[in-house]
Amino acid sequence: MLKFLCDIANKESRSCPLAQRFSKKQQAIADREQELLQIALQLVEAEGYANLTMDKLTAASPYSKGTIYNHFSSKEDVITGLCNTALRHEIHLFKKAALFEGSSREKALALHQAYLLSAKMQPILFSCVLTAKSPWVQEKSSPARIKAQQELEKEISDMVDQLLQNAIVINELRPKAGATVDLMAFAHWAISFGGIALLSSASETYSIDRLQGTDPFLYNLNCMLDGMNWLPLSTDWDYGQSWLRIEQEIFSAERQQLATALPEILR
Amino acid sequence: MLKFLCDIANKESRSCPLAQRFSKKQQAIADREQELLQIALQLVEAEGYANLTMDKLTAASPYSKGTIYNHFSSKEDVITGLCNTALRHEIHLFKKAALFEGSSREKALALHQAYLLSAKMQPILFSCVLTAKSPWVQEKSSPARIKAQQELEKEISDMVDQLLQNAIVINELRPKAGATVDLMAFAHWAISFGGIALLSSASETYSIDRLQGTDPFLYNLNCMLDGMNWLPLSTDWDYGQSWLRIEQEIFSAERQQLATALPEILR
DNA sequence: ACCTGAACACCGTTCAAGT
DNA sequence: ACCTGAACACCGTTCAAGT
Questions:
Q1: Are residues B59 and B180 both part of a single domain?
Q2: Which of B194, B216, B225 sits opposite A183 (nearest CB)?
Q3: Is residue A173 classed as helix, strand or coil in its secondary structure?
Q4: What is the CATH number of the domain that holds B166?
Q5: B109 shares its domain with B235
Q6: C-alpha to C-alpha distance for B142 and B3, rounded to whole angstroms
Q7: Which one of A267, B2, B98, B157 is most buried, by most CB atoms within 10 A?
Q8: pLDDT value at B211 more than 60
Q9: Strand D contact with A76 (CB < 7 A)
Q10: Does A260 lie in the same domain as A213?
Q11: Among the three residues A72, A88, A108, which one is the final residue of a domain in this structure?
């Protein structure tokens, strides 16, 4: 019950900050949940997943074990909580990306840059999203948190669909025979996800290590979108330039934040 | 020390089965290690990762804890051991794929089918490979096993490189400006890995669930390879047919094995 | 109604004692 | 030289007792 109210309260406090539909007590509880997730994140960032322990979470917080179990039904529920934080951050960046002015394919590029950026800024949270989808985490998470997760995913999915739909309408994206919006949306996700996951978590791998200096992410996208028939093709347009423009016009703040101190591989 | 001999002994027993360069004792130890990994795999397959416990591994085996710690330096070392098993299986399928007779692009398709098949046949082992690359697993694994892992990865990487090199030589693959073999090899890996990882572990996700019935994997490949400029383009050749031919001529045994009983999503 | 922390069953790892 | 299992410190989860 507590958990359910929390997620509502969190959502409300974002979408309409002035709403007073929840008591101070409920807001305080929601705040505490965010506080706990922040501490959990710090623990994981400091020493990896193995370091996330309900004992340590208790010790690092001002609350008791019982209180923490009032918020989270299990350790896995904490992970799903972190996943939802990641998705909210991702959505935030996606919304910024949607503001970029350019061709439909450039807008798609902006979404991919947002995705890449979300993974670079919070690599741990990024990996959380996949971890949270594994059956045994899913099984042990509370229904309320799973529901929140699905709603967040739907929101992202809708943004991608809309971009594709629009590109088709204005005739810049001309789908191959049999290519539905669903199929194309999945292709976008797969190429981006695959690239990020491999680059970030498999950096010790021979065939990835040798890539240093090039920009594999953009090359992958150029191939994929060319093959998808999204005009103008990369032979007719310099998407390296577009990439830089997006970086400067939309994500300069995030870039700067990254530049300070973060994993070497992905910078 | 025991661990190192084991990995050598395993390798030898594969590449030249008749070699008697190791004593019966050493072979027995190597066999026991495989036995332990088999048990570990069963534990994970039965109830997920959380179910893999050194206690349970001990209980499910005829050996004591001390003996198990003679083989594996830590729980993480067991995971890396499972990862290496997965890589060996992958290599086995890759070698079968290389036997397919067809154009260079069809041969590439055969490799991707092998990769997909390895993930479908042993989904748990597939996820193991990524898990094993995460820093905190890597850190706690024994040097010998990490070395074996790197050698296996190099072997796979070489097979892909060779295919690409050859396709360029016979002028069927005509790289875009600036596209090196490294870059293209990575693109192959990323699109395949991304597709498989999302399809297998995120099946509850809205934008993936709706894909049922289509063949997203092949669509992704067609786009990617068209964009990469690998002839003949998918507009000039029916790769759906090629896919089926590969299935029938190379992987009919694997297909049959899969057909019996396995996760619904990927069949 | 919510919070607390002792209690319990289990887990990863080690090591003195055996063979 | 290898095996054993008791022992230790730690972990996830619960719940009776408090406020």
A1: no
A2: B216
A3: strand
A4: 1.10.357.10
A5: yes
A6: 8
A7: B157
A8: yes
A9: yes
A10: yes
A11: A72
Q: Is the CB of A213 under 7 A from strand C?
A: no
For the segment B26-75, what is each residue's pLDDT rounded down to a tens digit?
788 889 999 999 999 999 888 777 789 999 999 999 999 999 999 999 99
Range(s) of the domain holding residue A4: 1-72
Quote the pLDDT of residue B54: 96
| B54 interfaces chain A, CB cutoff of 8 Å | no
Separation CA B149–CA B154 (nearest Å): 9
Closest CA to B72 of B86, B58, B62: B58
Do B18 and B84 lie in one domain? The reply is no
Q: How far is the CA of A56 from the C1' of D11 (A)?
A: 10
H helices present in chain B, as ranges: 2-15, 24-47, 54-60, 65-71, 75-97, 104-121, 123-133, 135-140, 143-169, 181-201, 206-209, 216-228, 239-249, 252-260
Average pLDDT over residues B98-127: 94
- Domain end position, chosen among B22, B45, B72: B72
Short-list B232, B224, B227, CA closest to B105: B232
Question: B93 and B121, same structural domain?
Answer: yes
The stretches in chain A having pLDDT less than 50 are 1, 12-19, 267
Query: How many domains, in total, are found in chain A?
Result: 2
Residue with tokens 């089965």: B17
